[in-house]
Amino acid sequence: PQGSEEAKAFVNAFLKRSMPKMKDEAIQDILTRKAVVLEHYSKKKTKQKRKKAKGFTAKQRREMRLFEIEPEQQRYTIFLPLHELWKQYIRDLCHGLKPDTQPHMVQGKLLKADLHGAIVTVTKSKCPSYVGITGIILQEFKHVFKIITKEDKLKVVPKLNNVFSLEIDGFISYIYGSKFQLRASERSAKKFKLKGTIDL
């Protein structure tokens, strides 16, 4: 067993090692209070930066022509199976389109649904040349629809100032393009309000 002097020397040496920044007088002052709080130096943890998955920029996508449909692929018959898939998708979305289904319920579902594969017709337009264009929607952007017609022509139809009709299993729905200028991904979260009169 250590004597009192040896114990004192040990404590002094231990405190010097534990608190290197403190002077001997300060250590002695701490010992007289009988309460010793040892200093703790925490190592700073280096935060690892999360690497974001880098996708292509809009400019790179344009340069790579990712969204362009090749001329040999611009045929109406190629996309008819897509239309059949779309019809089944809408039936599932509306829990089966029965004769007693409420039209406003179907309308509400269609406003938020993905329209790629739907057959639409331009019924009204401020530009007469657009009226009567009918075809399958191949691509939907914020401001335009890309539609393939039965004549195998790819038409780019703006949403602004155009009214589109869409028919499925006897239900006819009208889309006012001026109020529909959203990307498909944004539209699913938007709340559409019913309005009495809508102008082109």
UniProtKB/TrEMBL annotation:
A Gene Ontology BP annotation from the UniProt entry: rRNA processing
InterPro entries named among the record's database cross-references: RNase_P/MRP_Rpp29-subunit, RNase_P/MRP_Rpp29_sf, Rof/RNase_P-like, Rpp29/RNP1
Cross-referenced SMART domains: POP4 (SM00538)
GO molecular function ontology, one term from the record: ribonuclease P RNA binding
GO cellular component, one term: ribonuclease P complex
This protein's UniProt keywords: Nucleus, Phosphoprotein, tRNA processing
Chief site of localization: nucleus
Presence of the UniProt keyword tRNA processing in the record: yes
Function text: Component of ribonuclease P, a ribonucleoprotein complex that generates mature tRNA molecules by cleaving their 5'-ends.
Subunit structure and binding partners: Component of nuclear RNase P and RNase MRP ribonucleoproteins. RNase P consists of a catalytic RNA moiety and 10 different protein chains; POP1, POP4, POP5, POP7, RPP14, RPP21, RPP25, RPP30, RPP38 and RPP40. Within the RNase P complex, POP1, POP7 and RPP25 form the 'finger' subcomplex, POP5, RPP14, RPP40 and homodimeric RPP30 form the 'palm' subcomplex, and RPP21, POP4 and RPP38 form the 'wrist' subcomplex. All subunits of the RNase P complex interact with the catalytic RNA. Several subunits of RNase P are also part of the RNase MRP complex.
Name used for this protein in its record: Ribonuclease P protein subunit p29
Taxonomic source organism: Pelecanoides urinatrix (Common diving petrel)
Source species taxonomy: Eukaryota, Metazoa, Chordata, Craniata, Vertebrata
